[in-house]
Design goal:
heterodimer; A: alpha/beta; B: D-Amino Acid Oxidase, Chain A, domain 2; 21 strands
Amino acid sequence: MIQRDVLVVGAGPAGLAASIEAGKAGAAVLLVDLNMQPGGQLFKQIHKFFGSSAHRSGTRGYDIGEQLLREALEAAVEIWMQSTVIGIFPGNKIGIERGMDGKEKELVTVLARKIVIATGASENAIRFKGWTIPGVMGAGAAQTMINVNHVRPGKRVVMLGSGNVGLIVSYQLLQAGCDVAALVEAAPGIGGYAVHAAKIRRAGVPIYTGYTIVEAKKGKDGCVCGCIIAKADDKYDPIPGTEEAIECDAITLAAGLKPVMDLPKLAGCTLTYSSAFGGYIPIHNDRMETSQKGIFTAGDAAGVEEANTALEEGKLAGISAAEELNLISKKKADILRKEIWERLVSLRSGPFGERRLKEKESVLKEYAKRAGIPAAEDQEVEKCH
Amino acid sequence: MNKVYDAVVIGAGAIGTSAAYHLCEKGLKTALLEKGDIAGGSSSHCDAVALICDKLPGIDTKMGQASIDYYMELAKRFDYDFEFDPKGCLYVCETEPEFEAASKYCELQNNDGYALRMVNNEELCQMEPHIAKDLTGALYTPPSGSIAVSPYKVCFAFVEEAKKMGLEVYTYCDIKKINLNGKTNGVESVETNYGTIRTKRIVNCAGAWAPFIGELTGLKIPIEPRKGTNLVSEQTERLCHNKILEYGYMMSKFDSIHFKRKVSPLAEELNVAFNLEYTKANNLLVGGNRLFRSYDIRSEIETMKAIAERALRFYPELADIKCIRTYSGVRPFVIDHLPIVSDVDSIPGYYIAAGHEGDGICFSPITGRFMSQIIAGEETDFDISKLDFARFAS
């Protein structure tokens, strides 16, 4: 069994930011991630970041990733890639399977004084006839294929879902040389930003709002060879008699993300359901500490948002963990947290952001109520906004 | 709500659901109260077999055999499929001394008429081609004394079949108080979050939680939670055809029987003994151990490692099979390793069927039948005075 001050699970923007802050403060930080490269989703984000007053708007995701990796290196963060956390056990013991299939693998137990869970989110699936046929995949998976692995998921793709992910990935599929046969959206209007939708429209992608996918068709090779779409009623159910066939060899689903809750559940964190944040999330305070003392969360695992908010939340978690380890004074930590919260409030503005800002406030309130912190601190939570 | 029942059963695990079923069969208007969901406690955190060969000779084995025979009958009679699967069992012996001890046990059971037999190394390797080649032999129990069922489905089967006879089920039911008659001290009513339920008979089938129900009427029920852990493998081809256990398992179960095993300090400390079975979906269940950890059923990484290590000694090929999850549950432990299936002298109308430790699934059908016979004032199928609660009176 090895010991570390802080164990961070997930090397995306939140986990990297938490590791950097705790590492800079002098903590012995171990950052683990099951992927081959750190950076989470950043390295597939070839587009420039957008947003109103976001401090990194105009920067491309992979550039942010490179910068974070440099900072992590400077902060002496120990990074284990291809390492899967299999559980958080009584006594803050973490089981890590280190190494990939087919190679040398070992099960390492780490005793960590503080834990940061930054496991991100997973894609939601949509079930229709044939949804398990090879060629049906998440839009995020398709994005990884084209932008990270440089493999096209198909020649002719049908995208379901017109949120920002659906719109951006459709455009990136076009850039990668795929034909986007249709963008299908069950709601009456486009879900994401108009600026992204306009790009798709200009490129000539047929947009079917008020439609849904009824069935994926299986070809002779056992893979997708087309799909049937139909008009959707107000419950998003297909209306019989309105079916249309579209030829395609890949169907990508952009149906939103949900926080990955396996580890918080195993650790016994109290969860709450939040539709604005994509599903169940651990209740947490303004320091990103969950109902389990010494276990922090950040990023999409604490509510699905975007890379910038994940970065800021990661910093909060890293600073607060370092503070609990007496590596940062309370005074300094308070100042840093105040600055971060100011940035978070500005990031959570605009039509999409305000809903998340309100929701985050209610999560903090729920923490104050359910995790039973003293009333005086409860008021401080309120002041942070 | 002010409901009246002939009998109220507390606890909807393998024992309580069976008791409820059998009470309905006797024509009693019965309610089943459960603090969580059906099969939400030990009956969904266990393994899936019913054996006679893990029982001590005598009443333990007799009840086991009667229950297995009864399972066979229920599998035919019930509309609800509880995945009854007659599969044999091999108690494998690592060393000569273990083999000798197993042979003695086998002889005792043979004398009582049970068809167990010893198999040597050669026959063992034929029966189980994937097993380690260096084992001395095994104690074999044919399917007549060794079966598997789905423990969840057993509970649901009893509930669904009993509903046809009028059973009423209250899940997520908090029992706040049990009222006794001021004069007779007999059972009068149960106060719950559903309101007061009037009844003259309650059956405490709360397993490891039976002491908490006992406390409500000042009864001290000597049951302790004892934790057991299983690993679950990915789906795989059938590595084993029988239920496989190491004979040392007897040791972890009955402290009175001692064999010196060649195990690592970790396996020794964590009281680990190998057992293996396949499920209907072809995942393997790999066990197991017994530890006192109060009601904490969180998995422990040291236990997981020790179980895996012990399993590899008997099935080296498991090294190439993934463990997809683990689970632990508490077994209701009683010091003399016999359940309590009994009335309670001090409280007329109060009955207990609990404390089966790792035998709840095995003993489920027969325990329910016994309980209904006791409550109906009939003679039980055979003498179960050893299971009387009064044995703890001193």
